[in-house]
Amino acid sequence: MANPSPITYDNTALFDRRPLHFDPGLRRNRLNLLFTSIAGIFAAIAVLPLVLVLFHVLMQGGRLISVSLFTQLPPPPGLEGGGIGNAILGTILVTLIASLIAIPVGVGGGIYLSEYSSRGWFAQFVSFGTDVLAGVPSIISGVFVYGIVVATRIFFDQSYSAMAGGIALSVLMLPTVIKTTDEGLKLVPQELRWGAYGVGASKFVTVMRITLPSAFTPIATGIVLSIARAAGETAPLIFTALFSPFWPEGVFNPIATMSVLIFNFAIMPYEAQNELAWAASFVLVMMILAANLLARWISRMAKV
């Protein structure tokens, strides 16, 4: 019996052979170009407000930068000259107070959620509360601290103070620090913890010597971003730190900050105060921009 001849199929009708090089005439390539262009336009529209704000602040406030701007006090309403030196120092001081409160508490909370909790009801409550707190308007934080610190005069019978402003800003910083610490510690390989336990290290030693140093980069990035957010807040400071036209006199007295100075001077009917508001806007934007660039540099260091 003769062997049957193999059956062959003609695939030319099933598969249309095309050249390997890009063909702009194909319908799918034209659609791809169309939707790519639409996505690019939407991306440009999204970035356009940032570019316009930076350009306008640069044009209005950048031309006013001088040595006297950083070394002198604001002038009385209606007078020329002066600077925003007290507001710059006040912003740094209030942000420093907020950082000293929020960073230890936030990092400790993130360590608890990642390393010590068993994801029970309390850990879920803390995680849910952190998410809710991240979405609370900043003015609510100001009103809250006003009620428990300013109105009660709890600090040496003082009402408005830099300390109250720092506490209000620390409330805004906490969610970011807690979440970034928690997520950063989750990125640490579990094998590092097992190795530390295998050589007899305790839980505390493992956290302090292994997991925290390994997660330093994401934690530091979250801290820098939270500081940048706190430095630009205005509403909490109106209720807590108020404003002072003088140099800082201590953490338990009213203090000037750049965000409140911008708010006060921008609505005054005097050209000199309006110009100082633009100059303060430029300085504040540059500080926040520098903080964000630092955060990006820190996060990029983790990939090296």
Explain the overall architecture.
The chain has 304 residues and is mostly helical. The protein is 68% helix and 0% strand. The protein has 12 helices and no strands. The chain has helices spanning 27-61, 67-71, 85-116, 121-134, 138-150, 162-186, 190-198, 203-214, 216-231, 235-240, 258-266, 271-301. The termini are far apart.
Counting DSSP H or I runs of 4 or more residues, the number of helices is 12
User: What are the segments in which pLDDT stays under 50 over at least 5 consecutive residues?
Assistant: none
In round numbers, the mean pLDDT is: 87
Q: Please identify the oligomeric state.
A: single chain
Instruction: Compute the CA-based radius of gyration.
Output: 28 Å
Q: How much of the sequence is in beta strands?
A: under 5%
Which short descriptors sum up this protein?
single chain, mainly alpha, flat, 304 residues
Q: How does the SSE layout of this entry go?
A:
Layout: H1 27-61, H2 67-71, H3 85-116, H4 121-134, H5 138-150, H6 162-186, H7 190-198, H8 203-214, H9 216-231, H10 235-240, H11 258-266, H12 271-301
Helix pairs in contact: 1-12, 3-6, 3-9, 4-6, 5-6, 6-9, 7-8, 9-12, 11-12
Quick synopsis:
The chain has 304 residues and is mostly helical. Helices cover 68% and strands 0% of the residues. 33% of the residues are buried.
